[in-house]
Amino acid sequence: MSSLSIPPPLLRASPSLTAAAKWRKGAVRVRVRTSVPALDGDGGCAGSGMEQQHHQGDASGSAVREKPVMSNIGKSTNILWHDCPIGQPERQKLLGQKGCVIWITGLSGSGKSTLACALSRELHCRGHHTYVLDGDNLRHGLNRDLSFKAEDRTENIRRVGEVAKLFADAGTICIASLISPYRRDRDACRALLPDSRFIEVFMDLPLEICEARDPKGLYKLARTGKIKGFTGVDDPYESPVNSEIVIKMEDGECPSPKAMANQVLCYLEENGYLQA
Length: 276
Known about the structure:
One of its GO terms (cellular component) is cytoplasm. Residues 23-57 have low confidence and may be disordered. It is built from nine helices and nine strands. The longest helix is centred in the middle third of the chain and has 20 residues, at 150-169. With 276 residues, it is α/β, with parallel strands linked by helices. A five-stranded parallel β-sheet has the order 6-7-5-8-9, sandwiched between helices. It has a two-stranded antiparallel ribbon with strand order 1-2.
């Protein structure tokens, strides 16, 4: 007698499993689209020179790219200026002051570095953010490839002016202390900073006083011919004609560092530089 083959009973899914399967099946069909704004350039700076996309009124709605405006500046070609949404006004508000450049000029030994340090200390004690660009310090690094020939002096001042401009744009009170003997070079730095952000301080002390001080011994070396092209000896110093601040001797006496710093502080306060 042959045996009968009885098929196994069909497995029936529970109602809960069936519902879950239907939900997953439906979820595959449905895709939720979210709009994620694209970042412009490297950091999402609005209004930059990077290519911007916008939709024209055509049926396809395809994106159209604007061609960036490239520039040629000096020996640099095909360069692009990028603007960021955080600018000088926002940085100044954060610091509670106006970014500017205080450019201290004068003969060697006239007290430029002394004033720069005293002024920086006074401003720091009042809660203001400053930075000193000292001529000798900068020649240890940024300008170490430059000599004291006329053309290198011009390049020296140009570089410092550009760096000082960046500090001012950052909202910092930048104090630049350099002989900067040529008027045209100082005027070129002034032109970099609009809205009266360039404050020239002239250390108007006589050559004989500066030479008598001679803190670095440079006048002695220049008089003996060991240094050539030294400002005030065998290279000219062109005095400013319209400096915002002039530091002079009073009654035959040189003002103290604190007195000089206070003179500059009064100017900054009166002209609103110490508030945003």
